[in-house]
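Every protein is a chain of amino acids, and every chain bends into a shape of its own. The protein below has been through that process, and both of its lines are reproduced in full.
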Amino acid sequence: MEPLPRCNTLASSVQIRQTSLFQSLSSFLEPAQVESFIRATKTGAKKSKVFIAVLLIIRNKDVLNCALYQVKQIDHGKIPFQVKTKYDLAKLRLVNGVSEEEEETELELVFEKGSNLMSPLTLKWSAENGRAKKNFLVSLWKLVNEQMTTTPQFLNINYNMLQDSLSLSKTLKQVSMLGSPALETKEYKYLTGEEEQDLGVVTEGIDWAVENAEDFMEKLMNELSGLTKANIHSIMAVENDVIRLFNIMDHALHELCRLEDIMVRYEDELNEDLLKMEETLQSYKQQQIRNDNTRKLHDLLTDLLDQISYSETTSDMLLSLPLKTASQITRVSEAVSQLQDKRKKCTESPLIHMTCVAEQRDKMDSLLQAFSERVVEAVSSITSPSWNAGQTIRHSKLLPLLPVVNWLASYNKPKYEDLAAQYQVTAQTAYQKVLREFFEDKRSTVTRKSTEKLLSKFGSRKSELALSQKMLGSTSQLHSQTSLASGHSTTSLDSLQSSKSETEFTITHGSVFETSIRDSLDFVEITMSKEESFIGSFFKQTRSRKERADMGEVVLCRFTAELESFINTSCKFDPYYALPIYLSILDRLDDTQQDSFLFKVLRQCLDTANVYFNKMHKMQKERILENNKKARRGTASCVLQFTQFLLYAESLQKNSRRSSLEMCYTQLGEAVCQSIEIFATVQSKMPSEVATIENYHFIYHFLFRNKIDGLEKFRSHCHKKYKDSLEQYVKSYLGTPLDKINVFFEGVKLKLNSGVPHEEIGFYSEFSKQKLKALIADYTVKEVKKGLESVMKKIEKHFTKEQNLFTVACLTMQAEFIKQVEGYENLMKLCYPDAGLKFSFTIAQIHAIFDGKSPRH
């Protein structure tokens, strides 16, 4: 039976990948002709180290050469492959298939190496699978038989398979030479026996579908025929009813036409009646208007006489009543308002041209003019530059006059503007004097010689140690609150008590200046808020919001300059003053309305404080980086200086806006890490890992206790650096105390990794049970204790008593040693299960050894 052609839908993803790889290799190795290739690894090597072996025919004019290339596939780059090794097939002497089984993947190729036949080159490869190996060997067999004069020897290979492939190749060539078009094209391949069988299984169970479809179609046609007949009968049954319905609708249309004619007749009669009623109504309205005009004229004359007349009491009140008390000003304000209303009614009256109305208007104008001069005189006496009074008194005197001042603004605008300008000049001059005196006192307090700078205190190591240890807590607190994975840490404070007062001065002095700057900001805020509130209320009815804002800038212009001058003086005297200044202003901004003039002043001063804050931050960073020139053991000065700065900053910070401060913390933390690395490298009396362990542990413990926002990542980084350094230090100094046993089991692990079953390990002479038993006998409890105590004595000299991390190192070393011992015991149980082998010491004895040496709390 002729085989079926291979269906495209059965092409697997593996075949597609192989075809793509074949095309890529052909393109890469042009003009050489690729005959076959195989993906393989060296026998015994890792599966990840895969290469491609390619069979090539190289044409050089009329000479044909056959070669084997070992190519490495590159995932990235412009060139997808790299040729590693080239082998000439003319020197191939032996092809060993290892086994004739189809599942076998190993093969060996032996080449002649130079002219010395006694030292051949042997390649041992493992293919991806047995089928790939088979195809490669068939291609190699055909190539050496068709293109080469000398044929290598083939061992452990199914020769029937090779002969069949060679015969098929020759037959195809003969047919091709006869011009058979069927074999010249390579558009499809034929199904194998297995694929033909699979295709039969797939199509075997679907013959019933065709028969069921025919039955379904016949049933559907029968049902549709019945429904069609039923529809036709239904249509014929309702034909008489439809005709009757049409007759009823024609009768209804005739009735509607008759009713429409009646409605048109009625509408014409109603329109005639409406015209008659409209004429009667118009006549009535005209008569009503004549009567109303007569009554309004009478009322207007009567009202005008009442409105334009005023009493003598009103005249006396406006001309002679003092403008001092609130009640007096209220009475005068009501009187002038009434008089101005009467004056306005004279102007608005339609009888304005009557002689009596004109005379009464002139009298009221004279009275209002006299009263306006009294108001100007009263306000000028308060706003005069020669009148030396404080803000509160000035405001208390002017606020009662607000009603009459507002009246003056509406009555005589130029006079009102002159009074407003006079007030601006007077208030500006008064504030300039008050601010100069206030900030002169503050500057003298900050810069007097008896004041000790924070800068010098941050340079004191005693202060750094004492402040940091004070915030870290006592020894018992450290032990109870912190239980790290590596053990417990403690801190001794006995040597730091002498510097306690010096530390407290640093925080206290910072708080004193913080109080000073907050007092200054309170003064500025209260003064400006009062003035801004006064301007907003006193000039609210007479000036727009923008005009009041411009007026406030004129009056309060000296506040910005004086406050910036105080900031400059303070920060130049001590750069660390920038921190409380910056944080205090930032705190005030959150509670200040953005449309107020106080907000503008604080915003401008914040920019100035931010410049000094950045300079202080840069200076602190430089001090941290330069503070390890004179290195000493224990906690580095840069670390203590960093923690003291954090405590100082956190004691000042009360605002939720911490972005700038947290960025400063982060950059200083990076600088501390750099400085710790430098500090560790310059140590001569102890390993660099010890310096790293102590300093990163100190920082982590400090941050763990104080919970400073924004330093969570930095705290985790310090903890990781501390753990990594501790682990590296322990591995470096502990090593493998049971050295001979470690070497023995390393060999056992190699055997297990190479594929030797664990139950056969004991059959090897170098890994026998007797040899292991002898090695275990060498390590008695006494010997192990002696070795471990020697190591602990050595590391005890490395750690200082400042943080007492020797205990942590001992506990970590104990855990590492127990881990090694348990690993050995697990291998003994696996490879020598019934041998009864065990160490002469127990885990409890190991704990006793370390407990006897390391100090306890």
User: Anything to note?
Assistant: DSSP finds 30 helices and eight strands in the chain. The longest strand covers residues 116-127. The mean pLDDT is 75.
